[in-house]
Amino acid sequence: MKEQRNIPIELEGKTFLDPKYDPAFQELFSEKDTLKHFLNGILHLEGSDAIQDLEYRTPDIRFGFPDPKLVRFDVLAQCQSGEFVNIEMQRAKHSFFKDRAILYGAMLAIQAKKNLERNNVNENKDLLGNFRYQMPKVISVWICNFKLESNSIEYHDEWSVYSKHSLEQGIILPVSNVLKYIFIELPNFQKSLNELTTVEDKWLYALKNMGDEEESPSINDSIVQKAYDRLRVHTNPLEILSKQVENMLTEAEIEERLWENAQKGLQQGLEQGLQQGRKEGHQEGKLEQAHKMAKAMLGDGIPTARIAAYSGLTEKEILAL
């Protein structure tokens, strides 16, 4: 007899947990082979260059002054070759998002440096001084369920440290590979199931679409197929389901507040614009305020269609801001 389970009402009718929410994302990559396969795909590593083994690290770091606060990475691991890798799933854009990504990478670099020095002391204390400034490689992967810029079209971008002089000479190699940032913009990934060719393609398709799939799609990759099975609603423990629902409700509340604030601000801006327009005998004030509020709403990750509905601007005008 099939086991009867109490599925939270928010997940009824769902086949898979949506990995764009933290609990499902962390559960998905809590399995080592899955994480290795994903990283090799995103980092485009093959053959002898591929990650052979890794170990999970404590994802908590305390940061801040004067009162340190706990910063928790979504997934943090150290590869056998020494690199530290942090993977973050970000559902919505917010103020200073790029600063946050850089800050997380810097904090992880300090943590990785401490770990390296600890290992050097244990291995040969006399050599520690010779490696005072040696840094391990740190890779930060940010999977964004939004566009970093409104006009961006690529889904995979990488940041490193470059020399302006070298770039002017046509040399595009980074001067250092110690800190590397990878940004994945899921809205820009538009490949259909039949267009998936690389491991990266298959993972991005799964991350973007799994939460809405009714059945596991025919993806020619056994580990990605196992990822679907791992996040089936009816096979996950109630603890995971409860955490997922809690995260979904929290995200929904935040998004609703942002939307309400944006609507209020837009209405106030339009009213101020109308008053100014009447006073000056033209509508420049109204248009200016509409532009300002549309920019603010774009910054909060609100879809252009919604902005157009409330601002009176066309989507083309909004994207041009």
Characterise the protein shown here.
This protein is α/β, with parallel strands linked by helices and 321 residues long. The protein folds into two domains: 9-236, no CATH class; 251-319, no CATH class. 44% of the residues lie in helices and 14% in strands. A six-stranded mixed beta sheet has the order 1-4-5-6-8-7. Strands 2-3 form a two-stranded antiparallel ribbon. The longest helix has 43 residues, at 238-280.
Main sheet attributes: strand count, strand direction, barrel closure: 6 strands, mixed
Give the mean pLDDT: 83
| Low-confidence segments | none
Terminal-residue CA separation: 59 Å
Helix-strand string: HHEEEEEHEEHEHHHHHH
Helix content: 40-55%
Structural class: alpha/beta
Total domains, how many? 2
Overall form: globular
Widest sheet, order of strands: 1-4-5-6-8-7
User: DSSP strand (E) fraction?
Assistant: 5-15%
DSSP E strands, number: 8
